[in-house]
Structures are given as structure tokens and as C-alpha cells.
């Protein structure tokens, strides 16, 4: 899957601006950037839900329009930030929705579909919740159920839009540990830079719809980029080969210095807001 100079205008506004990317089989690519950077729109373009204003999204080197909607529906699975339903469904019912692209109209579900559902439930640790009502699940369990639905689809590409939002730290880590271990090519939009540094093979940073950086987390997530793109000061170090990002409060100088006009760290109390990756032991 890839994108070649893909642009999308909505209501006269340029939302995605000439983005190009090539996904490598089996990798996890993180989409980063502030709110409004175009991450969700780019995911929908990759999924074929939206059509680009210009440029082309490809699958196996062919434009999505030539591949066909049915093939795309089988190959590419998506997980949105939130999923809601008023219908009374069990966890197994929700996961079984992933088999719909593989069914022919008016034909019964093939036996292999049931096996795919059970395998997805087992892989996501939901086998013992299969008969439980969707409405009784926690936020983390609902997200895992949505990932199980995507896995039951047996995709080769998985697109996730900020799947860790509104989850506590334990569930954030459990979910991304699961995603990173899947045998599929994954694109995941994230806000948490430390989580992206831990779990993504590569990251692509967007600002105002355009790509400003792409590469490994260690190469891309620098103090300068974070300040340029997010407008905040940060210190970046390496631990176990991954960047560890410590965000600084406004007016706080980097470690070992005192910002002009500020009180020394001892006098003003806690001088920086830390989010070290190893202190974050978010489906």
C-alpha cells in the first residue's frame, strides 16, 4: 500500500497536501502531528473511504479504483477511535462483522469464517468474553473487540485512528503491544509521542496536511522537531534504543540551566512535566 502525492480538499480547505508514503510489509507506521494535521483524513484516504482530490492511493502498485471495493474491503481493515451501536450484540457478534467482506450475497457464512472469528477472539484475549454483551464492556475491552473484528477480516493492512484515546496507561500499552505483534502491515495515528517511539518501526509527521518528517522514531523525534511541530519544548534522550521525551513547562530551561527571568528549580518546585517512557508501564 502507498500514496503518491495525495491531496484532499474539504469545503475549500486543504486537509491533506501532497502526501507520499510507501508501506513496508509487516511494519508499524505511526502517523503523528497536532490536532487538525490531517491524520484521520489520510487514514480514510488509505482505506478508500474518501477519494483524493488529486494523487493516487495504491494497493500492490495499482490504484484503489482499479483494485475494486470488494478486494479493498477484504484486504484493508480499519479501527476508528470510537464504535457505538444501539443494537444488542455480543462480543462474538461484533467480531463476526469482520467476515462480511468475505461473504457473497444471500449465501450462508462459510465454516472458515467461524474459525477466523474464534482465532481473532483468542488472539485478542477475548475468548472468555465472547458471549458477553458489547454494552457491558469497558473502553479497553471495546477497543480490543474492534481489533478482533478487524483481525477476523484477515487483512494484510490494518489502519487504526488514535486507538489509545481515553484509555488508561495499562490498556494503552496492552493494546499497542498487541498491535505491534500482529502479522500485518499497520498504520496507526497516535498523539502520545513516547508510545509512538516505543511501538512504531517508522513515524510520519504531518503539519497542516503536509509531511514534515519521516523515518525511525530515533531519527525523527528530536527536540527541534517537537518544538517546530507542536510548539512545546522537550528534552529527548535514548533508552533501550528508543527516544524518551520529557516535556518542559513553559518558561522552564533544559536540565542544568535556568531560563532567563525564572526562579531556580529548587525555588519553584517541580520545574518540568515528565512523561518518560519507562514510567508508562493506552483499544
Q: What's a quick, concise take on this entry?
A:
The protein has 283 residues and is α/β, with parallel strands linked by helices.
Blueprint of the fold:
Blueprint: E1 2-10, E2 13-22, E3 28-32, H1 39-47, E4 54-59, E5 62-63, H2 64-67, H3 69-75, E6 76-79, H4 91-96, H5 111-123, H6 139-152, E7 157-161, H7 169-180, E8 185-189, H8 193-199, E9 202-207, E10 210-215, H9 217-220, H10 223-230, E11 234-239, E12 242-247, H11 265-268
Parallel strand pairs: 3-8, 3-9, 6-7, 7-8
Antiparallel strand pairs: 1-2, 1-4, 4-5, 9-10, 11-12
Helix pairs in contact: 5-6, 6-7
Q: Strands of the largest sheet, in order across it?
A: 6-7-8-3-9-10
Radius of gyration in whole Å, from Cα?
Answer: 21 Å
Provide the residue-averaged pLDDT: 86
β-strand percent reads 15-25%
Report the major sheet: 6 strands, mixed
Discrete helix count:
11
Helix content estimate: 25-40%
The CATH architecture of the largest domain = 3-Layer(aba) Sandwich
Oligomer: single chain
Q: Which structural class fits the helix and strand makeup?
A: alpha/beta
CATH class of the largest domain: Alpha Beta
Low-confidence stretches: 257-283
Query: What global shape is seen?
Result: globular
Ends apart, CA distance between termini: 24 Å
The name of the CATH topology of the largest domain is Rossmann fold
GO molecular function: ATP binding
Protein name: ABC transporter ATP-binding protein
Region (Disordered): 255-283
Pfam families: ABC_tran
Kindly list the characteristics that best describe this protein.
about 280 residues, alpha/beta, 4-stranded antiparallel beta sheet, P-loop_NTPase, about 30% helix
Amino acid at each position: 500500500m502507498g500514496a503518491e502525492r495525495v491531496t484532499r480538499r474539504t469545503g475549500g480547505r486543504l486537509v491533506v497536501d501532497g502526501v507520499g508514503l510507501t508501506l513496508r510489509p509487516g511494519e508499524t507506521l505511526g502517523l503523528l502531528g497536532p490536532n487538525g494535521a490531517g491524520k484521520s483524513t489520510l487514514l480514510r484516504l488509505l482505506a478508500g473511504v474518501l477519494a483524493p482530490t488529486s494523487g493516487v492511493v495504491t494497493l500492490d502498485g495499482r490504484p484503489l479504483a482499479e483494485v475494486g471495493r470488494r478486494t479493498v474491503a477484504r484486504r484493508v481493515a480499519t479501527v476508528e477511535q470510537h464504535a457505538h451501536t444501539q443494537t444488542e450484540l455480543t462480543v462474538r457478534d461484533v467480531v463476526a462483522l469482520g467476515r462480511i467482506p468475505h461473504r457473497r450475497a444471500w449465501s450462508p457464512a462459510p465454516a472458515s469464517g467461524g474459525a477466523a472469528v474464534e482465532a481473532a477472539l483468542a488472539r485478542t484475549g477475548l475468548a472468555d468474553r465472547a458471549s458477553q454483551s458489547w454494552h457491558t464492556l469497558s473502553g479497553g475491552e471495546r477497543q480490543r473487540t474492534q481489533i478482533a473484528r478487524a483481525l477476523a477480516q484477515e487483512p494484510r493492512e490494518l489502519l487504526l485512528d488514535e486507538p489509545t484515546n481515553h484509555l488508561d496507561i495499562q490498556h494503552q500499552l496492552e493494546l499497542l503491544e498487541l498491535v505491534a505483534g500482529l502479522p500485518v502491515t499497520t498504520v496507526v495515528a497516535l498523539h502520545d509521542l513516547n508510545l509512538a517511539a516505543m511501538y512504531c518501526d517508522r513515524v510520519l509527521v504531518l503539519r497542516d496536511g503536509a509531511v514534515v518528517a519521516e523515518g525511525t522514531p530515533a531519527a525523527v523525534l528530536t527536540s527541534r522537531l517537537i518544538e517546530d511541530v507542536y510548539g512545546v519544548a522537550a528534552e529527548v534522550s535514548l533508552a533501550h534504543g528508543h527516544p524518551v521525551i520529557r516535556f518542559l513547562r513553559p518558561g522552564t530551561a533544559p536540565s542544568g540551566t535556568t531560563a532567563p527571568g525564572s526562579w531556580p528549580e529548587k525555588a519553584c518546585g517541580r520545574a518540568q512535566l515528565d512523561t518518560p517512557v519507562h514510567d508508562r508501564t493506552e483499544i
